[in-house]
Amino acid sequence: MKDGLLIIDKPAGMTSHDVVARSRKILRTKKIGHTGTLDPFATGVLVLVVGKATRLARFLHADEKEYEAVLRFGFETDTGDLTGEPKETPDKRQLVKKLTDEDVRNVLPHFKGELEQIPPMYSAKKIKGERLYKLAREGKEVEREPVKITILKIVCTGEAGRGEATADFGLRVSCSAGTYIRTLAEDIGRKIGIGCHLASLRRIRAGRFSIDDASTLDELAACDPSDIDLLDKREAVAHLPGIEIGEEFESDIRNGKALDYEGRHAGFVAILSSASGLAAVGEAYPEEGKVRPKIVVI
Q1: Class of the 240-296 domain?
Q2: Over pLDDT 70: what percentage of the chain?
Q3: Do 30 and 20 touch, CB atoms closer than 8 A?
């Protein structure tokens, strides 16, 4: 079985778990997980971890994300996106007709930088052990604590279409992990004074992985599993400083034995074997002159 990363261009209509399930059949292995859940209606970059690389998923969940979205002004929905039922709101057709991309651009500076965002009820976030979306489907609403997020870049890319009582505008957002673009769409609409929901969402980057690196499930299904190239598992921890060891130290790594360390960096490091590549993620203790293997991947 191969170990590494697989970048998928998730299609609309599938859950992230559906993508994992199909990938397991394609690669003929059960040891696959995903990082950074995408809603079923959303498309784009979904990073899968395969084989021993599943142990490295924790280092990918916090990666910065970049999205292309379409905001639909005219009304809010109970889910915050196009899959939900419209909420009862005052008729704003005249305002919608007059809405321009300049109006949208004018409010975007309010949404740049560090913000607090209340997670939507239709989300996988847990409150007291219960998934919020399960409570929402039962008609329940619970109090949610705001979470800190960071919007690094937010740009209106122009008008994207109009309906009888709606106006669509494109949005490009770079943000911290855990940001709900559905909630951002609603907040932008409220700032303008017109109900708004998310009409489409495409993730074009997760950390260092771009949509240009992604393959579709159909493309993978057309290949023999042995011909599918995975990204090296080192890519999952490329942001960590690396220390190199000889092949003779691999048995010590497997047995969790601390290695001598002469570096100054404290914290997680990638332990790189001359024979096997990424052997483990270790924790470095410069004051002790030691690095201890924490996550072994050989």
Answers
A1: mainly beta
A2: 100
A3: no
Tokens 């072994």 -> residue? 296
- Return the CATH superfamily for domain 4-63+208-233: Pseudouridine synthase (3.30.2350.10)
pLDDT tens, position by position, 136-171: 787 878 788 899 999 999 999 999 999 999 999 999
CATH of domain 65-206: 3.30.2350.10
Question: CA-CA distance, 104 to 294, in Å (whole number)?
Answer: 48
Which amino acid type is present at position 11?
P
Neighbours of 203 (CB within 10 A): 24
- Considering 39, 81, 187, 213, which one is annotated as catalytic? 39
Among 147, 69, 157, 68, residue whose Cα is nearest residue 114: 147
> Are the CB atoms for 32 and 46 separated by under 8 Å?
no
The domain ranges of the chain are 4-63+208-233, 65-206, 240-296
Check if 101 is active-site. Answer: no
